[in-house]
Amino acid sequence: MKDSNSRLARLSVKRQLQTLSAMALAAGFVTMAGTSQVSAQALFDGCPSGQILERFEEFGRSGKMPPDLGKWLNDAEAQKVEPWKPFDNVTFVGVCWVSSWLIETSEGHVLIDTLYGPFIGQLIENLKSTGVDFADIKYVLMTHGHFDHVGGAAALKPLLPNAKFVMTQGGWDEAIESAEKSEGRRAWKMIEQDMVVEDGDTIELGDNSFKVIETPGHTWGTASYSYDVKDQDETYRAITIGGLGLNAIDGPPQVEAYIESVDRVRTLVESGDEAVEVHLTTHGFSNNLDENRQQHLTRKLGEPNVFVDPQALLSQVETLRAGAVERLEIEKKK
Questions:
Q1: Which end of the chain is more exposed for a tag (fewer CB within 10 A), N or C?
Q2: pTM of the model
Q3: Looking at the domain covering 3-76+83-332, what would its CATH class be?
């Protein structure tokens, strides 16, 4: 496995479980961070995956949000990442801790996930800097109902006049219920249900197709999306896995669903002619996105694209599965 993608796989199962749970739990804590006096910008120099993972491990072990991490998670300036392109038709328009991907097709653009709260302005500015006509964004594919992935939908919807906002029925239900229950400093709003998709649906747009793969476990309504990415004269199949964490588990059946989902992703990677070879993640520090970005920017003519790495994806899936098997035993004993 490539060195730049090995950090996640090297974590022990216990630490991996702690980290992924903490990553997902953080979504419920970030808006509480404004009261901290700790300097968020001093916490990390850039967007270092290993250091961020270590702070999430601490959160996972203690169950308490470290004040500096909490402030960093809500600091738009500290989280800022300039748009960049891992593939000719794909632009990263997210921030350090949460991804958003813009995919260009011959008949318009597709956006994956909407960020939230203090990062909405950054997402909008990132989109503008790509030169995309907002009227050309035809779909917004949302992975699941957690607000760090869909909390920006309310701000984006009036700006994207031709876009359909897409999620599974379970995802819509989760998002709408969560927004309705939110209050105080953590209050947020969700748009009314728009386009509902289910497993196996394909959204065709120009020269690309976006397949819906329901992958419940992180939440019951989680979906992943696969689509084509282009690198010079080559085309590869990519996936954005909808959720990695094991927080908010409501019992063994949900963990079993998670295991089935990661097994399904593994099958997609090993499936032959249309096998998935690229993982464009929802949380960059889960698989060294920024380190790979830096390597990609120094790529020389003829060198392979670091993001085309099915073995790294298989290793990540194996680690996720091991953590879920351990969690299943815990849930069965409750």
A1: C
A2: 0.91
A3: alpha beta
